[in-house]
Amino acid sequence: YANPIALEMFGYKNIKELQKRHFIDFVLPQFKEKVNLDIQLLSPENKGRLIQYKVQDANKTSFWVETISNKTVFQGENGTLLCLRDITERKLAEEGIKKIQGAMKKVLEEVVSALSKTIAEKDPYTLEHQKKVSELACAIAKKMNLSPEFIDGLKIAAILHDIGKGSIPGALLFAPRKLTDIEMGLVKLHTVKGYNILKDIDFPWPIAKIVLQHHEHIDGSGYPHGIDGKTMLLEAKILAVADVVEAINSHRPYRKALGIQAALEEIESKKGLWYDEAVVNACKELFEEGFNY
Ligand SMILES: [Fe+2]
After folding, report:
1. Which of 48, 56, 234, 268 lies in the 20 to 30 Å Cα band around 289?
2. Predicted local confidence at residue 19, as pLDDT
C-alpha cells in the first residue's frame, strides 16, 4: 500500500504500478545497506530510527528523503510502515551553508595571513618564526587529541602571536648584545601591543588573549601579567612551548641556531615550572617520531 502523496512523490499514477516493486528498489545503491539494516533491526520493542538517504523515482530522478519505519499489521499481515519526507530542499540549503562556511574560512585565513605579513618588512625573521611556530603548535595540539575547532583557533593565534613586535623599535629587536632591563621591558610590551591590535576583532576563538599570554609561565614567573597555569589558556601553554622550541632551533641575528636537542632540553628542564607537563611531553614525542617543520 502507498498513499496518494507517496505515489505522486515517486512519479506513479496508480498503486498497481508501484506494488510491483519493493521499496528498497527505489533506494540508491550506496544507501541500500543502511536502509536494509534499519529495517532488519525493527521489532515491536525496537522502534525505527530517523535516517536520511537518497531514492529515485519512476523517471530515475533522485532526491533526498528522511524516513522512520515501524513494524505493523496491515490487513492481517505483518508488514513495515514507512513514513517518508522529501528533504531535498533542506539538503540543498545545508550544502549551500557549508559552501559559504568554506569560503568564509578561506577569507579568514587569507586576512590573517595578510595581517601576519605586515611584520615582514620590519622583521622577516618574525614572519618565518610565526609560520613555523604555528605548524609546531598545531602538531602538538593534534598529538594531544584536541578538537579541529580548537586547532583552527590555535593556528590563527600562532600565526599572529608576535604581531606586536611591529611597534617595537628595530634597534631593540635586532640588537647584537644583551638588552638593558629597560630595553627588555620595551620588547616584552609586544604581547600587550599584539593584544591591542587584535582585541576588537570578533574571532570565534580568544585570539587576542592567547597572544597576550604567550610569554606567561605556569608558575606565574612570565610576563606581562605573571598569571599562572590555572589562568593561562591551554592554547597559550601550547604556544609558549612551540615558541621557545622554534626560537632555540632557529638562527637569530645575534646567534646561530642551537638545534632541536638544545630546545628539547630547555623545555624538559622547565617542565612543570614554566611549561605545562602534558604539552612538553606531547612536543617531545612529536620530535621522537621524526617531526620536522
Ligand atoms: Fe613573543
Report:
1. 234
2. 77
